[in-house]
Amino acid sequence: VPAQIVVLGGGVGGTLAANLLSRGLGREATVTVVDPIGLHVYQPGFIQVALGSTDAHHLMREERSLLRGDIELAIDAATSIDPRRGEVRLRHGDRLPFDAVIVATGARLAPELVPGLASGAEEFYSLEGALRLRERLRSFDGGRVLIGVAGIPYKCPPAPVEFSLLLDDALRHRGTRHRSEITLLSPIGRALTIQPASDLVEPILRRRGIEVTTFFNVVSVDPGCGTVESLEGERREFDLLILVPPHRGQDLVETSGLGATGSWIATDRATLQHPEHRNVFAIGDATDLPISKSGSTAHFEAPVVASRIASLVRGTAPRAMYGGRVMCFLETGHGRATALRFDYDHPPRPPAPGRRWHAAKRIFDRLYWATVPTGRISERLQEVT
Amino acid sequence: MALIGAVREAPVGATIEVLSSDPGSQSDIPAWVAKAGMSMELVSEEDGYRRFVVRKSR
To answer: How many angstroms separate the CA atoms of B18 and B27, rounded?
Structure first.
């Protein structure tokens, strides 16, 4: 009897893990991917949509087209996981038995947690938010722009810095920069969490005339008065407010009793297994690990989970461990970028921003659809980086 | 900084314990606690990490 493996979520981690398991185990397992919309969305492109440098249709593919033919795809949402019975329940009534389940359900945006956020602030963390912001920016004729964060943790920690720098570029290009003030409201004591990365970007922000306000954690927005208030007790006025909405894990995690605070799934940092239920694995944004929530995290976690599940199926000792590897590009504007590569034990040493990294990011954007099903980074990209 | 997320969620009066081995966070935590008007109840040096206990005082 083939082992039954259920993968919840068709994002970066779920798609790659499912394909690796299907290829590696062949007839020894059946692999089923459950995804609520059946569309795979390249989220790093949202920022480019907001700034008008790419179109939304480039960011979507049908999940089916990214999965191996022998993988089952259920367009449905999981409503609960029962690790003891080895069963997932779906919204449309089906029950899927499993020997191992991978929770790769990502993060949910929770704007409702901050009063005034939904009506008073723009965001680029959803496709509709990015499209809305693009329209706002088309008619923006200068003013006070605040860019900040309304909850920790959030996906892609450098995104607010990156957005500030790219917005500076865009406003200069449109001739409205001299009528605008751009302020980055950082939730922590510097521009970025990781010190070497922060040391790199702070002088760039200064040179571009972007003010950095530290320790500003947004707690409420007053859309009528055009003000935003912080947990630290400060208030700022704005003409255009762009905030990263609060993030939460999926309710499924909470209702199944697998959660830590905020509905993030409790996850072992090395084995990526639930501490109590060894048949439950987690990948990507859904975990409670205190590391970057990013596509690359999921990309590097997926092979570890696939390898451990293959060992479970074959009754061999699992050896693969996740070492905390993350890689992200950081666009700094003017056609330049840098790259942050780090793991649990090695902080990043980002290179000076240059055109080469910007080119690498562009290539990665285009090759993403070939990378996500197989996990292989193309030779062309390896040459550049 | 996970502490900020935890303080956000907690009711006024709650205490939150943070264990940190990251040098950046070890300087950020006291700075944030002072800036946000919270109170630092305890700082202790442990084997390889530092323990902070913070009270959400407002």
So the answer is: 13
Pick from A153, A215, A290: CB nearest B32: A215
In whole angstroms, how far apart are CA A235 and each of A117, A222, A226?
Answer: 15, 10, 10
Asked if A152 lies within 8 A of B8 by C-beta distance, the reply is yes
Residue of B nearest to A152 (CA): B5
Which one of B3, B4, B56 makes the best mutation probe of the A interface by having the most chain A beta carbons within 10 Å?
B4
**Chain B residues within an 8 Å CB radius of A215:** 31-32, 35-36
Residue B5 is nearest to which of A151, A193, A215, comparing CB atoms? Answer: A151
With cut-offs at 50, 70 and 90, classify the pLDDT of residue A150.
very high
Higher per-residue pLDDT: A308 or A375: A308
- Tell me what the mean pLDDT of segment A156-184 comes to: 97
C-alpha closest to that of A212 among A260, A265, A270, A148? A148
A215 and B35 within 8 Å at the Cβ level: the answer is yes
Nearest beta carbon to residue B8 from set A189, A194, A231: A231
Q: What tens digit of pLDDT does each residue of B1-56 get?
A: 789 988 988 999 999 999 998 887 888 899 999 999 999 999 999 999 999 999 99
Determine the pLDDT at residue A379.
Answer: 62
Put simply, the chain A residues between 78 and 137 with a CB less than 8 A from any chain B CB are none
Residues A241-257 as b/e (b if ≥16 CB within 10 A, e otherwise) read bbbbbbbbbbebbbebe
Q: At what angle do helices A295-314 and A12-25 cross, to 10 degrees?
A: 30
Rounded to the nearest 5 percent, the helix, strand and coil shares of chain A are 35, 25, 35
CA angle A92, A14, A100 (to 5 degrees): 75
Q: ipTM score here?
A: 0.91
Give A5's pLDDT tier (boundaries 50, 70, 90).
very high
Q: Yes or no: say if A162 and A242 are a contact pair by the CB < 8 Å rule.
A: no
Residue in A with minimal Cα distance to B5: A152
Residue B8, token pair as written in the block: 């956000």
Nearest CA distance, B24 vs chain A (angstrom)? 7
